[in-house]
Amino acid sequence: MGKFITFEGIDGSGKSTQARLLADALYAQGQDVVLTREPGGSPGAEEIRRLLVEGDHARWSGETEILLFTAARRDHLEKTILPALKAGKIVVSDRFADSTRVYQGAARGDLRTIVDRLHDAIIGVEPDLTFIIDMDPAEALNRGLARQSGEDRFEELGLGFQKKLRAGFLALAQDFPDRAVVIDGNGPKEAIAQKVLEAVTGHLQ
Ligand code: ADP
Ligand code: TYD
Questions:
Q1: How many domains does the chain fold into?
Q2: For residue 155, which atom of ligand 2 is closest to its CA?
Q3: Which residue in 133, 128, 99, 97 sits closest to 21, CA to CA?
Q4: Residue-range definition of the domain harbouring residue 18
C-alpha cells in the first residue's frame, strides 16, 4: 500500500497551494504521486462538486450536504484513491473526511454523529498523515474571496463561520494526534512547504 496524505483547513488557508508544492517536491524525489482534491477527484465526484460549491448557501440542508459530500467521497475513493494506494503511490488530497467532520459536523449544527456513522459505514478509510493549515480567518477570507472563482457558496457564510471552522479543525487535531499535524499558514509559501516536506519525510521513513 502507498501513503495517503491530506490537507485540511479553512477556505483560503493555502491548502491547495501546499498540496501542489508537496506533490511537486515528492515527484522531484522520484516518488509516484497522485494529487487530488475534494469535493471531486474523480469524474463522478467532480459532477457532484458543482452541486455543492455553486448556488445559494441555503440550497441544501445539513443532512443532504453530508450525503452529497459522502457520495462524492465514495466515488473518489473507489475510482482514484484506493487504486493509487494499491499501486503503491502516494496520494495527496486537498481535503477529505475531516472537512465533513468540521464543516457539516461541527459548524452547522450538531450533525457530527451522522457524519461519523456514515463515514464508518461508507468510507472507513483515514489518511496516514493530515496537515491542518492554521491561520487567521480574516486573512484567509481575504485570500479566498480575492480569487472570485464562482465557487464561493461556503466562503459567503462569512467571518463568524470561518472562526467556528478554525476552532473545529484545531479540536480535530487533538482528536487525531497520531495523524494530524498543525502547520502555521502564515509566512511565505516556500517556508511552509519546507515544514510540510520535513514532516512527510519523517513520517515516510
Ligand atoms: P485554499 O486551498 O486553502 O483555499 P489556496 O492555496 O487556494 O488556499 O490559497 C488561497 C490564495 O492565497 C491563493 O490566491 C494563493 O495564491 C494565496 N496563498 C497561498 N499560500 C500563501 C501564502 N503562504 N502567503 C500568501 N498567499 C498565499
Ligand atoms: P474547496 O474547493 O477546497 O474550497 P477552498 O479552496 O475555498 O478551501 O472546497 C469547497 C468548499 O466545500 C469549501 O468551502 C469547503 C466545503 N466542504 C465541506 O463543507 N465539506 C466537505 O466534506 C468538503 C470536502 C468540503
A1: 1
A2: 14
A3: 133
A4: 3-204
Residue 87 Cα, ligand 2 centroid: separation in angstroms?
27
Q: Evaluate: CB of 147 within 6 angstroms of ligand 1.
A: yes
Per-residue pLDDT 10s for the chain (205 aa) are 999 999 999 988 999 999 999 999 999 999 999 999 999 999 999 999 999 999 887 899 999 999 999 999 999 999 999 999 999 999 999 999 999 999 998 766 789 999 999 999 999 999 999 999 999 998 887 776 656 566 665 556 678 888 999 999 999 999 999 999 999 999 999 999 999 999 999 987 6
User: 43 vs 34, 48, 75, CA distance in Å?
Assistant: 15, 9, 9
Q: What's the grid cell of residue 147?
A: 480569487
Q: Is the CB of 203 under 6 A from ligand 1?
A: no
Residue 78's CATH number? 3.40.50.300
Does the reported pTM lie above 0.85? yes
